[in-house]
């Protein structure tokens, strides 16, 4: 009987301590949220540090439940604790998921957290046991709002999943995107096996993307000399990535080019501008068949950051804006290009103010 009462007392004391810690976390969470939203301006806000602490408070809520065991370690119970944090400050999104099942071991607990910008920031958190103690074992944080996507198991049956961080739209162009593929590791946690940042080290701006049936497709603007942000009718690419059974991770399975003509046109423009500057008569004659047009061209021209003007779609002619530096001032020119069996050729050229 004495042992029973001692156990009950210990349970009550533990619950009281956990409740006090949770209350302290909620209070601190609300304070950080108000600072991030600009409601409290008593001191400068280190946004990165505040976000890191905000997500760490959510980690502590998840780990508390995992430590308590079932049923408190279930996803619905953990989500209730996270909902209590969001009730204090609703600016962030805190979601928890349970992935995987036997026989590979206990299901993975995965948190997907987000906070408003500018820019918005999101974090993936994977919880597992280390030395029998639950902890946030792996994480990944990027700009953008994260979303979890289903992904087929690995060849050995290990659970896998995809997380995509979509950034905010800016103007008529694409939106920043980071995609990662994760799998359950042998240690019981999770490891990243592929990232779009390896394929696109300068960043990926997408017009659309999808995750379906073990394939990731991204549609994005191809960047090349003569590409200008916000202009219509420029070259786009649609890449499809699938699992690479030999090397692991993903590999490019297919690439479809949309409106390839624009990149080809701008490649011809680049060759002409370089030939004019270098006095390359052979290249100039090839790209400008008409002698009268060649005679009008100055010795140097430079691209203007302006959208090309198409006659129709697909274009029978395209006007490209360039400038000449004449007597210390910029003179705008219009170069008219037409497609031919041999490629794009310059058929007219004139200063725009004449």
What this model shows, in words?
The protein is of the alpha+beta class and 354 residues long. It has 3 domains: 1-90; 91-258, no CATH class; 261-351, Nuclear Transport Factor 2, Chain: A (Roll), CATH 3.10.450. Helices cover 30% and strands 37% of the residues. Strands 5, 6, 7, 8, 9, 10, 11 and 12 form an 8-stranded antiparallel beta sheet that branches. Strands 13, 14, 15, 16 and 17 form a 5-stranded antiparallel beta sheet that branches. Strands 1-2-3-4 form a 4-stranded antiparallel beta sheet, with helices on one face. A hairpin with an 8-residue loop joins strand 5 (145-151) and strand 6 (160-166). The relative contact order is 0.06.
Descriptive tags:
354 residues, alpha+beta, Nuclear Transport Factor 2, Chain: A, 3 domains, eight-stranded antiparallel beta sheet, five-stranded antiparallel beta sheet, 7 helices, 17 strands, 37% strand, disordered N terminus
Task: Annotate the secondary structure layout.
Blueprint: H1 2-36, H2 47-68, H3 75-88, E1 93-99, E2 108-115, E3 121-130, E4 133-143, E5 145-151, E6 160-166, E7 175-184, E8 190-195, H4 196-199, E9 205-212, E10 215-221, E11 236-243, E12 250-258, H5 260-278, H6 281-287, H7 291-296, E13 302-303, E14 309-310, E15 318-326, E16 329-340, E17 343-351
Antiparallel strand pairs: 1-2, 2-3, 3-4, 5-6, 6-7, 7-8, 7-9, 9-10, 10-11, 11-12, 13-15, 14-15, 15-16, 16-17
Helix pairs in contact: 1-2, 2-3, 5-6
